[in-house]
Q: What sequence folds into this?
C-alpha cells in the first residue's frame, strides 16, 4: 500500500442502508490520486448526465488527497463533490481542519454516498467499523449541539464530526458543510446535497498513522520539522499567523480593488472599520489552526458588545469580512462577525450568502423588489440589521429568504426587469471578493472554472510573480518578472494554464494554498519530495502538473455531458464596465481581449474553442482516452 | 553578469582578419543560454538559407553552455555548429574535455567565425587579448605536434588547443575537431567547415573563475563536493569509471542488438575479442577524465604488439570499438585501437568513418565496387588491414578514399546500382552503434534529429525507465515502469518528446549525459539547483524543458529554411527489415507503426506533420514568435 493508511473507498447507499468497502487498484490511484481527480473520476463514470442535484440519484463524493494527513503544514484538505444544486455543473469544495486527516487515519481515501435515507441518519466510522445511525433527534439542531451529542452517544470525545446545519437541511442551494465547527466546505452547495440525502453528519475516528503507510517516512518527518521551524523566519507565513487572511481588506482597499457594493466600486469608505487593526481590537480571542499546520492562519473570535458572537464557530476570513462588509456597504466589524457566526451556525457559504444579499440590496435600491417582497425589510446597502435578518431568512427559507436561498442567478430570473445584471455570478455561483479588473488571472479562473466563480480554482499570478514564488511563470523568459496584473493576452493565458494545473494538483492531493503557493512557505520541490516519499513513485514536477491537468479534464468532461459549453465560460457584464471609484477608477476588462485570451487558453488546454470539449489527442496525452470514448470525440 | 565569467561573444571574420567582441543582452541569454540554443539562434538569424557549407559564407559557431566550466561533474561540454557539409542541414557536435571550460575562464560564451583566411591561421585567445596568428607551418601537421608548437610559440604550457588534423584540412565531410588530443567534436563534419576557413586551431588561456560570476557559489561548490564523494557509491557511475563505455559491447551482444556487418546482424561472433575484459588486457594504460568530472569515463591506451598505437590520442569509446569491430566484421581489438588512433590523429569522426567503410565493404561484397575502384584493396568484411588502409585513404582523399570522404550517401549516389540500400544514414549522416530495432526511441531520435542520425540527440528510454532514472517517463502513469523497448505508438512518442527536450536542454547548458542522464549520477533536481545558483533565475524543471524545446525549434526552423521536410525524417530501409541472427533475429521496425508514431510526435511538438514547420502557436508558446515571421507561418 503506497498511499494512505489502508487505501479504501467506502460506499454508503442510504436508500438501501448498506455499507460496502472497496479497495483501490494501484494503477487507478496513480492516475487519480485523490481529491478532485478521484471525485471527478467517480462522478464522470457513475453519475448519469442530467441527474437532478437534489435527487437521491446524485452522488456525494468525499475524497481525501494523497497528502491529506501527512504531518506537514498545509496537508489537511479533503474534497466534497457532487453535481451542484447551485450550478448544475460539477460541484466541489475543499476544507481543511481535522476531519480529512482523521478519515485517512481510519483507512479511507474516499466515501461515496448514494441514495436518500428514509429519515435523518448519520454515518459513524471507527476504523473498520462503519454504521448508519439514527439522526432524527439531531435534525434541526445546531452544529455545536450536534457535535457534542454525537461524541456523547458514541462515548469518544476525540471523534471528528462533519455535518450540516439547517441551511443544508433546508436545501439552500449554497449550503456548506462544517467540521469541528470552524472549517467549511463552503462552495457549490454540497451541504444541500447532503441535506437532500437526509444525512446529517459523518463522524470519524481513526487510529492509523500516515507515516506507517509511507514509502519512506523520514523525508516527510524532516519536512514537517523544517516547516515548523521556518514559519517565524518566513515573512508571508508569519504574517498569515499574526494577521490571517483579514489583512487583505486594507491592502486591497489601498490598491483600489476591494469589491464594494456589488462590484461597483473598488474602494470602501468604511474600510478602516474592517481592517486588521480593528479585527484584532474588536474580535480576536485566539489563533487557530488545522491538523499539523505551522502556519496557523485561522482566527478565533468572541463578541459581547453591540452584537453577541459565540466563540464556537471561528472568526471570519477575508472573504467574509469583506462580503458582509464593504460588499454590502456595512462598515461594522461586529455585525460582520455576527453574519459570519450565523452562516457558520446554519452552514451557509458566506460568499454566496453575502453576494446574494448584496444582489438583493441592489435590486431593492433599483426598485426591482420592494418592502412588500421583503416583508418590510429595508434592504439597502449599509443596513447591517437587515443584512443579518436576511441571513436568517435564507437559512430558514422564509419570506424573501426562500427566493434568495436559490442563489442570485435563479433569484434574478424570478425578479426579472434586468435583475440579472446585478447577479454577480458565473455558472450560477457567486463571485468571491477578488476583482478581476485588478487581477485578470483570477477572472480567467472565475470564467473557466468548472464549478463557477471560485477564487480557489486558480491562484493569482500577481502573487506568483514574486521572486519567492512557485516560479510557474510560464509566459515570460524573465523568470522572476511579473506580467502586469491587468494585462490579458497570450502570455497571460500561458501563465494561467500552468498555474491552473498546479492549483488543480493541490486540490487532488489535499494541499492548502498557504503551503506551496502562492507565498511558497513550502517550496514546490518539497512538495515533490513529499509525494515521492509518500508513494515511492519516481515522479517529477511535470508529472504533478499532469495530475492537475488530468483532473481538470475529467471535471470539464462532466460539465460538457451536462450541457455546458463556452457560453457559460464568461464573466458578469459588470466586470466589462469601469470601476466607479478609487485609484483604479475607470478600469475595466476589455471584452474582445478577454475572448482572445480565452481562445488562447482553450488552445493551450487542447479543448475545442466553441464546445470546450477536450480533444481525443489531449485526453490520450493525459492517459484518459476512455473519456474521449465517453464524449464521443 | 549572471552567467559565465564575462558574457561575451567573440566575432572573428577571417576574410577581413578582424576580431570584435559583443556583449550579450541578458534577456537574450535567458532565452538562449548557450550551446545548441545560442548556436541555433545565431545560425538561424545570420546564415542565409542555401549557403554552401564549405563556402566562406558559412558561419562556424563555437558555443559554451550556461553550466560549462562549473566545477561539478559533467559540466564540461561545448558545441561547434554550422551548416553541415555532410547533411546540408543544421550541423552540430559537442565535446567535453578542457577547452570549453578554458574558454569560459577567458570570458567568452561563444565564438562566431566567418569568412576564409587567405592562408592558414590560428586564433589565440588569452583573456581579453585575441589574435589571428600564422599557421602555415602547422598546416598538414599532426595534432600532437601542433599542440606542442602552439604552446611553445605562445610560451605557455597551460594553453588549451582546439584543432583540426588533415581530415579537416582535406575537407572530409565528416571531419572532426579535437581538443587536448583526446576529446572530439565528432559529428556532422564541423572539422571540414573549420578547414574550409583555413583555420587550423583555436588556442585558449583564461584566468577567470566560474564561481566568481555565479549568483550563489555555495550550492555549486557543495554539489561538486557531493558528486565527488558519490561516485564510489553509485554503481552505474562507478562502472563507467572502472570500465567506461566499451563495456557496452558485451551487454549489447548478449542482448542481440550489437550492430554487426552494416546492421544486418545483432550478434557478432568475434565479440569476445572486443569486450571489456579484452580491452583491459590488451589496450588499457590509464583512466582519463574531463574538467572537474568525478566520473572519469575516459580510457587511455597504448599498444606495442601486432599494431603500434600511440598513447597520445586516447582510447576508443564503445562507438569506435564496435564501429571498427563487429560492424566491419573485425574481431581484433588492436586493429580497432589503431583505427581509432588514426581517426583521432587525422580528426575523422570514428562513427561516420567506420560506417562508411562498412558501406564500402558491403558494396564490395556485392560487386558494386571492385578491386579496380579500390586500387587492389580487398575491402571485405573482416579485413582489418584493408579497413585501416581505407581510413588512411579517406583522410588523404586518395583513391577510393576520395569518394568515401564524401560520406556514404553521396558515395552511394556515385556508385549506383542499389548501393543506397547499404548506406546506413539519415539526412546523410551515418548511424551510430545502437540498433533501433532494439531501441526504438533511439530510432525516433535518428529520424527526427536535425543533424541526422546521432545517438546523443536523445537518450535511450530503455535506460531512462530504470527506477533510478530521471523520471521523465511521460507516457505511463506508472512512474518507474518501462515501456517495452521495441514498442512504438503514442505512449512512446510522448516519452520521446519529453526526453528529447531534456536532452536538448543538456546540449544547451553544456551537460554530458553521464551526469544527469541516463544513469542519474546527478539528480535532475541538482541540475536545477546548479542553474538557479549560477544565475539567480527562479526557474523550474518545466522551464528547463522549455529551454530544450525552444532550441530544437530553432534548429528545425533552420532545416526547414534549407529545404528539409518530413521525407528526410526517416530511417534506412534496412531497419524495416528483420535482424538476421541472435536472440533478436526476425525483429524489425514496422513501417506503418513508425509513421504513426512520427505523426504523434509532430503533433506533440506542434509541428505540421507534412512540412514539419513549427506552428506559430507553438513558437509563441516558446517565446520565439519571431521565428514564425521568419518562416512565414
A:
Amino acid at each position: 500500500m503506497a498511499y494512505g493508511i489502508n487505501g479504501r473507498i467506502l460506499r454508503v447507499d442510504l436508500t438501501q442502508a448498506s455499507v460496502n468497502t472497496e479497495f483501490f487498484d494501484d494503477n487507478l490511484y496513480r492516475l487519480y490520486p485523490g481529491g478532485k481527480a478521484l471525485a471527478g473520476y467517480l462522478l464522470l463514470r457513475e453519475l448519469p448526465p442530467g441527474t437532478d442535484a437534489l435527487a437521491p440519484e446524485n452522488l456525494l463524493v468525499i475524497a481525501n488527497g494523497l497528502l491529506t494527513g501527512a504531518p506537514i503544514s498545509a496537508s489537511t484538505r479533503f474534497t466534497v463533490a457532487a453535481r451542484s444544486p447551485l450550478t448544475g455543473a460539477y460541484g466541489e469544495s475543499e476544507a481543511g481542519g481535522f476531519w480529512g486527516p482523521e478519515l485517512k487515519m481510519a483507512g479511507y481515501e474516499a466515501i461515496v454516498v448514494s441514495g436518500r435515507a428514509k429519515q435523518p441518519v448519520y454515518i459513524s466510522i471507527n476504523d473498520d467499523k462503519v454504521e448508519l445511525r439514527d439522526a432524527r433527534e439531531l435534525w434541526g439542531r445546531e452544529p455545536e449541539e450536534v457535535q457534542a451529542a454525537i461524541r456523547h452517544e458514541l462515548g469518544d470525545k476525540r471523534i471528528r464530526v462533519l455535518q450540516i446545519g439547517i441551511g443544508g437541511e433546508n436545501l439552500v442551494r449554497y449550503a456548506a458543510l462544517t467540521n469541528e465547527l470552524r472549517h467549511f466546505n463552503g462552495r457549490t452547495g454540497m451541504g444541500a446535497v447532503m441535506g437532500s440525502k437526509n444525512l446529517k453528519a459523518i463522524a470519524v475516528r481513526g487510529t492509523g498513522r500516515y507515516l506507517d503507510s509511507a514509502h519512506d517516512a523520514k523525508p516527510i518527518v524532516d519536512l514537517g520539522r523544517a516547516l515548523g521551524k521556518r514559519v517565524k523566519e518566513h515573512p508571508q507565513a508569519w504574517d498569515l499567523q499574526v494577521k490571517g487572511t483579514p489583512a487583505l481588506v486594507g491592502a486591497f482597499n489601498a490598491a483600489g480593488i476591494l469589491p464594494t457594493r456589488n462590484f461597483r466600486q473598488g474602494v470602501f469608505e468604511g474600510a478602516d472599520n474592517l481592517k486588521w487593526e480593528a479585527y484584532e481590537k474588536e474580535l480576536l480571542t485566539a489563533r487557530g489552526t488545522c491538523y499539523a499546520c505551522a502556519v496557523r492562519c485561522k482566527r478565533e473570535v468572541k463578541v459581547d458588545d453591540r452584537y453577541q458572537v459565540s466563540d464556537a464557530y471561528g472568526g471570519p476570513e477575508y472573504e467574509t469580512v469583506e462580503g458582509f462588509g464593504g460588499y454590502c456597504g456595512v462598515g461594522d466589524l461586529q455585525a460582520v462577525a455576527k453574519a459570519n457566526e450565523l452562516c457558520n451556525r446554519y452552514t451557509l457559504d458566506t460568499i454566496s450568502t453575502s453576494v446574494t444579499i448584496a444582489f438583493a440590496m441592489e435590486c431593492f435600491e433599483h426598485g426591482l423588489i420592494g418592502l412588500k417582497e421583503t416583508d418590510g425589510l429595508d434592504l439597502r446597502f449599509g443596513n447591517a440589521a437587515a443584512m443579518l435578518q436576511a441571513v436568517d431568512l435564507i437559512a430558514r427559507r422564509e419570506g424573501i429568504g426562500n427566493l434568495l436561498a436559490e442563489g442570485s442567478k435563479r433569484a434574478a430570473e424570478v425578479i426579472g426587469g434586468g435583475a440579472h445584471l446585478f447577479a454577480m455570478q458565473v455558472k450560477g455561483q457567486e463571485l468571491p471578493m477578488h476583482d478581476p479588473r485588478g487581477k485578470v488571472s483570477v477572472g480567467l479562473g472565475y470564467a473557466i472554472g468548472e464549478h463557477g466563480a471560485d477564487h480557489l480554482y486558480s491562484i493569482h499570478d500577481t502573487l506568483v510573480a514574486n521572486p519567492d514564488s512557485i516560479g510557474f511563470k510560464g509566459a515570460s523568459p524573465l523568470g522572476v518578472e511579473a506580467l502586469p496584473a491587468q494585462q490579458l493576452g497570450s502570455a497571460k493565458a500561458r501563465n494561467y494554464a500552468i498555474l491552473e494545473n498546479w492549483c488543480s494538483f493541490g486540490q487532488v492531493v489535499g494541499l492548502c494554498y498557504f503551503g506551496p503557493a502562492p507565498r511558497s512557505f513550502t517550496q514546490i520541490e518539497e512538495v515533490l519530495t513529499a509525494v515521492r516519499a509518500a508513494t515511492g513513485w519516481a515522479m517529477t514536477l511535470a508529472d504533478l502538473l499532469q495530475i492537475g491537468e488530468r483532473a481538470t479534464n475529467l471535471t470539464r468532461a462532466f460539465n460538457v455531458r451536462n450541457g455546458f459549453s463556452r457560453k457559460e465560460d464568461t464573466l458578469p457584464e459588470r466586470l466589462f464596465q469601469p470601476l466607479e471609484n478609487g485609484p483604479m477608477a475607470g478600469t475595466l476588462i476589455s471584452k474582445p481581449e478577454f475572448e482572445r485570451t480565452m481562445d488562447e487558453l482553450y488552445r493551450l488546454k487542447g479543448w475545442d474553442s466553441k464546445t470546450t470539449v477536450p480533444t481525443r489527442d489531449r485526453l490520450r496525452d493525459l492517459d484518459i482516452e476512455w473519456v474521449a470514448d465517453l464524449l464521443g470525440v
Remarks:
- Residues 8-213 of chain A form a domain with the Aldehyde Ferredoxin Oxidoreductase;  A, domain 1 fold (CATH 3.60.9.10).
- The interface with chain B takes residues 27, 30-31, 467, 469-474, 476-480, 490, 494, 498, 524-525, 528, 537-543, 545, 603-604, 617, 620-621, 623 of chain A (CB under 8 Å).
- Chain A has three domains: 8-213, 233-427, 440-631.
